[in-house]
Amino acid sequence: MQTTCSHLPSSPRMLSAGRLLLNRVLPGSTNVRFGSVSPRPVAGKTTGPWRSSRRYSAGWGAVNRAGRRSDDEPAVPPEGDDHGEARKVWTLYDPLQGSLVTRVGGEGAGEGAKNPTPRVRKPETEGGKRDNNSRAASSLGSASAWAPITARKKSGKAKVSWVCESCGATPGQWWGTCPSCQAVNTVRQFSEYESRGSVGFEVSEAVTRSWLPQGPGDLVPQSLEEVKKGMNQLEWRIPLPGHFGMEVARVLGGGLVPGSLVLFGGDPGVGKSTLLLQIAGILAEGLGSEGPARVIYVSGEESIDQIGNRADRMRIHAPGLYLYSSTDIEDILEKIRGFSPRVLVIDSIQTVYLRGVTGSAGNIMQVKECTSALLRFAKQTSIPVLLIGHVTKTGDIAGPRILEHIVDVVLYLEGERCSSYRLLRSVKNRFGSTDELGVFEMSESGLQAVLNPSELFLSENHPGSEVLAGLAVSVIVDGSRTFLLEIQALCASGSTVVRHINGISANRADMIISVLMRQAGLKLENTSIFINVVSGFKLTDTAGDLALAAAICSSFLEFPLPNDVAFIGEVGLGGELRTVPRMDKRVTAVAKLGYKKCVVPTSAEKSLSGLHLDIDILACGNLTAVINRLFRAPDP
Question: Do 378 and 430 lie in a common domain?
Fold first, then answer.
């Protein structure tokens, strides 16, 4: 749009009104020219420059406040200005510079025309003509009266993203409820400038370059045969000696893999730092055949004296164990270069940071970049890195979900506050099975391996009692380990609590109770039922359905079960008993522990007949058959 104005106002108030009018510009291309024009056309005719004056009113929505002057500023007439010849004032938007520029020039390119005077950066072309690719905005005044109109430019371009603090999802915009984890008010804005300093890749590349015998550019792809040549799988992993080490090695898949990145998580106070300090101690002590091994334990939460006091209490006296307290990743990787450690332990990943990365320690970007730097360090140097990760109130690793995708192994240390037993469970393992489970007991000298885990989950019966009402034993398989669990049930009338379930899924327990009422005919409508799994174990295996049903029947009928009977089987909605995987291994474990009878589904009787075990197999097809066979008075 082009607009031409004549008879410039001379008073400051009129100048301010005219400036207010002309500073309201359209977002599109606008050309405002000041100069002498022909008289205003007669009404009804819209020829000439006045044709676009009606359309100019549409530009009142966008106001450029950067170049507006106050009414109190005096108006300075342009030099050489008269009524016969006016000067042009140009205010242009330069898309390359991202700012407004003001120029003053003559009317034309003919003789006597003055060269335009650029106010900001880019010079004007001949005759005051502007570049067609730029946008023009209107302005009024002379070269001495108007200051440059520029936009403040940021030091770096900001990349804005929205990240959930709970699960690490990036929804792309703000949401009151996270679309991924459904957490309320956890989506936060995160801005990252492109002009930041070093990132995890640059830091690890610079620090680990001195560790490598050749530069990264000299590395070439190798065939599988070349990689496997001379590799011994039995000697490839780093062994963990002793009962404690063997229990940890079982969960890791046989030992610690060189160059692996292992993440340990768990609730506060469950024993993560104790577990890692013990692992560091046995690694420094158990590699004597290969010479003195150095293990570095770096803590960002404790001082060296505090770690040493805890190691002395745990009776750890390894000469090859070195302690260091720092939170700077670059400083840590630089200081340990002279030691050439066999294993590096970081406690914890939420307390370390990288210089140049936006945010403080524990920030989502810091956690991601620090983990990436440590991963690259581990892969290039073949030094295993053990990390400790904090957890949120929901039990997940604090930080973005990508943290668990970056590392090679994710282990969780579980345990109840009221219990001294700890379970080490594998959630992710690139070098082994995720079904393994390690059982430990917390003592004054640290964690001790439990050699017979079944004793942990079996209650202590009174020596003179051979029966106990409301108790049944089941067999579960977790990885390569077989456990015997005791399930307790209590049926009481007149209680204000309808049901209280501990250690079993509430939906699963409700289903078993409903099947007992419908298919077995038990009148449990007005009965309060309490269910508990001994030692705080979380039962998820369906093989415990039959033991749960037997415990409820025993308590409701007030008929105690013999303590030498075990139950294995899944209960269907029709009351039928279904077989579960690895029945032979379960029954074998029951027989080794001295049990005389085992109730199993009828479909599994044929597969168990060839085991030749010293145990009676009681095959039943449904719950009614189990009740008729076990819950009846003995013959006189």
Answer: yes
Omega before residue 326 within 30° of 0, cis: no
How deeply is 355 buried, as exposed, middle or buried, from its count of CB atoms within 10 A (0-12, 13-18, 19+)?
exposed
Residues 618 and 525 both lie in one domain: yes
Farthest-apart Cα atoms in the chain, separation? 135
CB atoms within 10 A of CB 473: 28
> CA angle, corner 552, sides to 548 and 558, nearest 5?
140
Low-confidence ranges of the chain (pLDDT < 70): 1-93, 95-98, 101-158, 191-218, 234, 287-292, 394-395, 398-400, 455-468, 633-636
pLDDT 10s digits, 476-521: 887 777 888 899 999 988 778 888 999 999 999 999 999 999 998 9
Whole-structure pTM value: 0.60
Which residues lie below 8 Å from residue 458, measured CB to CB, with a gap of 6+? 473, 484, 486, 534
Tally of CA atoms within 13 A in the half-sphere of 26 that contains its CB: 13
β-sheet bridge partners, residue 531: 489, 501
- In this structure, is residue 27 part of a structural domain? no
d(CA 473, CA 564) in angstroms, rounded, equals 9
> What is the C-alpha separation between 251 and 453, in angstroms, rounded?
15
Answer positive or negative: Cα dihedral of 510, 514, 515, 516.
positive
User: In the numeric block, which tokens belong to residue 109?
Assistant: 């390119």
User: Which pLDDT does position 309 carry in this prediction?
Assistant: 94
Q: What domain range is 179 assigned to?
A: 161-190
Q: From 3, 143, 8, 1, select the one nearest 86 (Cα to Cα).
A: 8
